[in-house]
Amino acid sequence: MVIGVPKEIKNNENRVALTPAGVAEFRRFGHTVYVQVNAGLESGFEDEEYIDAGAVMLPTIEDIYGIAEMIMKVKEPIASEYELIKEDQLLFTYFHFASSEALTHAMIDRKAVCLAYETVEKADRSLPLLIPMSEVAGRMAIQEGAKYLEKPQKGRGILLGGVPGVKPANVLILGGGIVGTQAAKMAAGLGAHVTIMDISLNRLRYLSDIMPPNVDTIMSNEYAIREAVKTSDLIVGAVLIPGAKAPHLITRDMLALMREGTVLVDVAVDQGGCIETCTPTTHENPTYIIDDVVHYCVANMPGAVPYTSTVALTNATLSYALQLANKGWQKACRENDELKRGLNVVNGKIVYKGVADAFGLPLDDVTELLQREEEEEVNF
Ligand SMILES: NC(=O)c1ccc[n+]([C@@H]2O[C@H](COP(=O)([O-])OP(=O)(O)OC[C@H]3O[C@@H](n4cnc5c(N)ncnc54)[C@H](O)[C@@H]3O)[C@@H](O)[C@H]2O)c1
Predict the structure, then answer these.
(1) Are 114 and 346 in contact (CB under 8 A)?
(2) CA-to-CA dists, residue 245 to 249, 269, 373, angstroms
(3) What percent of the chain is modeled with pLDDT above 70?
(4) 90 and 33 part of one domain
(5) I want to staple 355 with a disulfide (CB 3.0 to 4.6 A). Which of 97, 118, 254, 367 is the partner?
(6) Spatial contact of 104 and 97, defined as CB atoms under 8 Å apart
(7) Which residue, of 289, 304, 319, is where some domain finishes?
(8) What are the residues whose beta carbons fall under 8 Å from the beta carbon of 334, sequence distance 6 or more?
(9) Residue 221: strand, helix, or coil
(10) Which of 304, 338, 366 finishes a domain?
(11) Which domain does 54 fall in, by range?
């Protein structure tokens, strides 16, 4: 298969969809990989490294879209890319269709095959291509929180781990999933006193087993949160209710219970936030202060560490991309339900319920569509 990797052009997106190591894997299976000049530069990968791995560099984004059967990207195509997309071209990237009707209609019109990273789903309902970014954001939440606890950043002026003779900071983590677990590990490793709250008792049992002694687990409820915020120095919002807006676990009135310089990092801000006073911020201007409480609410935290994020993402996407390239998308999706669940828009038809429901558009059955494709292959 001919694979194309364009340079990301969405504002502030520094990741790239394929590393030189990924190119070498595609080459090992006999595929051809075209990478746009400078596509990997912001993630720390020079063109020479791609060439050494067997890629062919092309100067423009038009060249890449013009030649590739499968486009591998990070972010959804933006308006200027729509017209470059060809009928039947396979696009493997994050789409988040439900948040953009314009993108949905554009992909229907282009008759492309859109396989979305965010809906590739395992039988246990986990989302293997979202997990790496949650891991990055969870770990970053503590790094950023520690920074904003410093006095010059308007924080409480407390070192997370304390020093001998001085007690450490209290870190409260709301939600003990992927983000929460990674945040807890980092905070505990730095010596902070950590509390994780979750509504799943099974999850709390698991975390209680694996976490070090400076991590407590507490059942999440309004009473417990109200008590905990009074003595917390850093609070990380990491809850998720799949398919729904995050619940406001920290309400505006609770800010009055907090000490001056408490830092809130709402990682869940991309789903509406679990802290009522959080609104999305950017890496250029990550924080603001309300009632003497520092709010950090960056919606794309992994964007600040493109090297780590790129490698983490491609570690997860590559095995799926190889299946698509080795078998063709139709056979790969027929044989692997995880990939099949990633199909969102195919040749002008919506095949993912969440997208059809979001805009009241008709839904095609993906299994029937794959069968039709198979019959056409046989007849051909
Ligand atoms: N800002 C960013 O850059 C960024 C990056 C990655 C992920 N995220 C977001 O971080 C959030 C968490 O993602 P995740 O991968 O850890 O999800 P996850 O599903 O692994 O974990 C969510 C946890 O929240 C718990 N939960 C649900 N309701 C709760 C409540 N009322 N109180 C306490 N816990 C509750 C669930 O039981 C679950 O354990 C998501 O909104 C995700 O989109 C943001």
Answers:
(1) yes
(2) 12, 10, 36
(3) 99
(4) yes
(5) 97
(6) yes
(7) 304
(8) 340, 370, 374
(9) coil
(10) 304
(11) 2-119+306-379
Q: Look over the chain and give the mean of its residue pLDDT values, rounded to a whole number.
A: 95
Taking residues 248-260, what's their average pLDDT? 97
| pLDDT tens readout for residues 144-182 | 999 999 999 999 999 999 999 999 999 999 999 999 999
Residue 126: inside a domain, yes or no? Answer: no
Residue 242: pLDDT band (50, 70, 90) is: confident
220 shares a domain with 166: yes
State the catalytic residue, choosing from 63, 233, 266, 270.
Answer: 270
Whose tokens are 């992994």? That residue is 302
Q: Is 270 in the pocket of ligand 1 (CB under 6 A)?
A: yes
Q: Residue 9 maps to which CATH number?
A: 3.40.50.720
Structural domain total, the chain: 2
Judge contact between 283 and 299, C-beta under 8 A: no
pLDDT tens, position by position, 50-83: 999 999 999 999 999 999 999 999 999 999 999 9
Report pTM: 0.91
Q: Indicate whether residue 104 lines ligand 1 (CB < 6 A).
A: no
Check 47, 96, 292, 337 and give the catalytic one. Answer: 96
Q: Identify whether 96 is a catalytic site residue.
A: yes
Let me know whether 102 and 152 are in one domain: no
- Whole-number pLDDT of residue 243: 66
Where b means 16+ CB within 10 Å and e means fewer, 239-248 reads bbeeeeebbb
Residues 320 and 3: their CA atoms lie apart, in Å, by: 13
Digit-coded pLDDT (tens) for 275-319: 999 999 999 999 999 999 999 999 899 989 999 999 999 999 999
Question: Same domain for 255 and 225?
Answer: yes
d(CA 374, CA 61): 32
Query: Is residue 120 lining ligand 1, measured as CB closer than 6 Å?
Result: no
Can you give the pLDDT at residue 380?
Answer: 60
Residues pairing with 200 in the sheet: none
**Distances, alpha carbon 33 to alpha carbons 82, 328, 380, in Å:** 21, 15, 27
